[in-house]
């Protein structure tokens, strides 16, 4: 970059590489995650459903919860066949989702059925108390 080009750019203008740092990962990567999910919250439970067809849940999926973040890691191995064309996705895929506050990480459960992984986390119902007056005492 020449000194003349530098002069035209405002000082506050960030380098191009910094423009995308604050965007969610799905927007930075073209709008699509390798693992698609649905998130819902109802009746005291937070549920994440993930599309993971063609994987063995016993050996190809790993689920971890750390610091309030649920991470699903899966691997799909490519079958060794002579193919002319394949649009299937193979390899290692990871997706992380922030859990709601108050979720006990030890109570998270998961099931797998027909290519869909369902992870459920019980969410404690906040206890609401009526406002009350606090007495002031003199010492």
From TrEMBL:
Alphabetized SUPFAM superfamilies for the sequence: HSP20-like chaperones
InterPro entries to which the protein is assigned, alphabetical: A-crystallin/Hsp20_dom, HSP20-like_chaperone, Small_HSP
Record-linked CDD domains: ACD_sHsps-like
Family (UniProt): Belongs to the small heat shock protein (HSP20) family.
Organism of derivation: Actinacidiphila acidipaludis
Residue ranges annotated for the SHSP domain, each copy included: 26-139
Protein name from the UniProt record: Hsp20/alpha crystallin family protein
Superkingdom of the source species: Bacteria
Gene3D superfamilies: 2.60.40.790
């Amino acid at each position: 970059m020449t000194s003349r080009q530098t002069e035209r750019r405002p000082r506050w203008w960030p380098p191009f590489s910094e423009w995308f740092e604050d965007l969610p990962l799905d927007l930075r990567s073209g709008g699509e995650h390798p693992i698609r999910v649905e998130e819902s919250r109802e009746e005291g439970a937070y549920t994440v459903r993930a599309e993971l067809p063609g994987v063995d849940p016993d050996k190809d999926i790993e689920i971890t919860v750390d610091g309030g973040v649920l991470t699903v890691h899966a691997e799909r191995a490519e079958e060794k066949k002579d193919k002319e064309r394949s649009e299937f996705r193979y390899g290692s895929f990871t997706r992380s989702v922030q859990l709601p506050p108050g979720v006990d990480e030890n109570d998270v459960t998961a099931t797998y059925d027909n290519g869909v992984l369902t992870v459920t986390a019980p969410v404690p119902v906040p206890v609401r108390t009526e406002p009350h007056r606090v007495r002031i005492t003199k010492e």
